[in-house]
Specification:
InterPro entries: Capsule_biosynth_CapC (IPR008338). The chain is mainly alpha-helical. The chain contains six helices and no strands.
Length: 156
Amino acid sequence: MLSAEVAVLGIAIGVVFSLVCYLVSNLSPGGMVTPGWLGLALVTDPRKLWIIAGVTVATYLGARLLQRLVILYGKRLFAAVLLLGVFLQLTVFLFLSHRQPMPFPVRTLGFVVPGLIAYQCVRQPVASTLLATAAVTMLSYVVLLTGVLLNLLPPA
């Protein structure tokens, strides 16, 4: 488990890399805070990524279905996709918490991340968004892991 200060630093590192990615490629890597949070997830417990990936896919497909039924664009699209992601992530969390102890602690930002990624996938080409998200996440992960391994960052 990493300290709160390291978590904030990890998200800040992700924001910097996300901004550079956006400025260079004009692609949002799943939102500004997403790569930093995913990098932290990789450092603390890589199993989280499977759940996030599944919920992101379900959120994206649900958003596309909603767009066929309701006129969604702009702020309404953002709110609908984000709320759908939170609902699906919370559903998975509640289902898993009744079946077995959670493999990782609950973090509030983790409920929002799948919706942020799915929203960017709705707005931009899916493959480009996923590639940008993966690249920026890996950069954030490498910087965080290097800091942890060199004992530059406190572990708890």
